[in-house]
Amino acid sequence: MKIGLRHIRYFLVLADDLNFRRASEHLHISQPALTRTIQHLEAELKVLLFERSQNFVRLTDAGRAFQEGGRRVLNGMEATIDLTRRVSIGEAGALRVGYTDFAIAGALPELLKQFHQKHPGITVRPHHGVTATQLEELQDDKLDIGFITGPVRHPGFQSRVVQNDRPICIVPEGHHLAMRRSVTLADLAEEDFVHGPAEAWAHFYDYLFPLCRRAGFQPRIVQEAFNSVGILGLVSCGMGITILTESIYDFATGGLVPLPISDISEVMVTEAVWLSDNLRLPTQQFVDFLAQQDIG
Amino acid sequence: MKIGLRHIRYFLVLADDLNFRRASEHLHISQPALTRTIQHLEAELKVLLFERSQNFVRLTDAGRAFQEGGRRVLNGMEATIDLTRRVSIGEAGALRVGYTDFAIAGALPELLKQFHQKHPGITVRPHHGVTATQLEELQDDKLDIGFITGPVRHPGFQSRVVQNDRPICIVPEGHHLAMRRSVTLADLAEEDFVHGPAEAWAHFYDYLFPLCRRAGFQPRIVQEAFNSVGILGLVSCGMGITILTESIYDFATGGLVPLPISDISEVMVTEAVWLSDNLRLPTQQFVDFLAQQDIG
DNA sequence: GTTTTTGATGCATAATAGGTATCATGAAAA
DNA sequence: TTTTCATGATACCTATTATGCATCAAAAAC
């Protein structure tokens, strides 16, 4: 015979009442049934849980230990059932969200905050990652939603623009361009650039390089950093200049000068992307939520 | 129908194997039995836990939630059974120990340390209290063992001496007795005394007063503090002198002078006491442990 | 002394779980 | 294509387990 939740339920009521007859009434079963169940429980545990006589029933020390533990088990069971039901109807769950530096510096925080207000049961698990990584993770079902750079038009993916950034040029204080009110791309042809590694930042380069090519040059990348904070750090050290977005610049600590680029009208888009066949309820809810948002 | 631990056990194995036939083999039951148990579980939860087809079985989000919760419930059940068994054989449990200032300043710490080494499963819960309080708590089953001052010879109680203290006189620095190497009781007849309140310190007074009477005076208590630290504090402020033990003196911070009392040979005993009819295993174990100790 | 109340027990019944045989369906093999 | 194989689901019967009723033995209440 095995101990089941039934034994625990009966035991706990008896441990409260300390009277077989009353406990059996509370449980809506007969008194012999309760006696038997407790006997079986004690036999299976090979432990006496109650001292009984015709006058009194009281818990042994072991009984008190079992009482505490039993309560925890029953509460845990109830909580599990409740959570499972709520997950199934979308009231609870987890949403794995990937984000780039551009997204976290821009619209993402406010979006997640609003989503949390609307769906307080959904736990958002954010994972930082560049665009390429996120697209892989989406396909490997490591991510539900990715916030990535640049338009993605792959079969199987759906997306929605959530953010438009105007790129700006960022130079260190004291740089020969630092006194300018604005620059053109052509002004930057001879400059050293600091940026991220080519593979990881492919989507950003896809946006920037054509613009530079149109201006008649290819940016000379002389230093690579692993994220935009690192890039800004290298720029402020005077290793070169960079082109990023205004929101990223706002994250920097100082020693940097932002310059508008007058001859770029193209914006750099940040998109939310997800797999069309992602059927998870939290994902659906986030997609629906996104559809209701007005994005400038 | 009610959800039981059986459902969870079966569910967890299936969630690992994701194959009904293999899971049923691991569980040593037939495949139809497993199929129906899972069906019953899902019906009771009103939640789909697995997506099934002839090709694959996989967990739904709700299934994953139930998996986590179910694991916790099962672990909790196992832990509870284990703890209960250990409590019943005395490998685990709690021992409520009362102690006086004299005990905690003397032999108690070492005793508890040794007991813990011998019975690592027993959690010692110490409660500070004067002798009178502890005796009440023992009788109300609020305490298992009391460490109290002075011999107790009440019916129902058993005891064992654990500590003998020679009382010393403690005076503040600069006191007119502070230069003496030792004092006699008679030297103290005209002094102001600081001590604890009469009711709570009854047992201490029972020891001290007869000695003073023999020396021909009754100590004049001019200040009361609630514990020995407070008493020593008042003494160091010059409010009076006191008679305590050397171990208590060692707890003081300074500004005090200890003086042996040459004409007291009677020691002040600290005893462990317990009710004869306390049947709790941890208590028995502590009593047995005490019996094995050599007490000076 | 009688009645009432307590927990325990014997026995029959009801509810639940399990096993065997079998089906329907889709994938892989021939 | 047809055949074979593996999958999960279902039908039907059996074994196990839980329950209720009637009753007992012992102690307390009256």
Automatic annotation (TrEMBL), chains A, B:
Coiled coil spans: none
InterPro entries membership: LysR_HTH_N, LysR_subst-bd, WH-like_DNA-bd_sf, WH_DNA-bd_sf
Span of domain HTH lysR-type: 3-60
GO cellular component, one term: protein-DNA complex
SUPFAM superfamilies according to UniProt: Periplasmic binding protein-like II, Winged helix' DNA-binding domain
GO molecular function: DNA binding; DNA-binding transcription factor activity
Signal peptide annotation: none
Domain of life per record: Bacteria
Name under which the protein is recorded: Transcriptional regulator, LysR family
Organism of this sequence: Roseovarius azorensis
Keyword rRNA-binding assigned: no
Gene3D superfamilies, per the entry: Periplasmic binding protein-like II (3.40.190.10), Winged helix-like DNA-binding domain superfamily/Winged helix DNA-binding domain (1.10.10.10)
Assigned protein family: Belongs to the LysR transcriptional regulatory family.
Pfam families: HTH_1, LysR_substrate
This protein's UniProt keywords: DNA-binding, Transcription, Transcription regulation
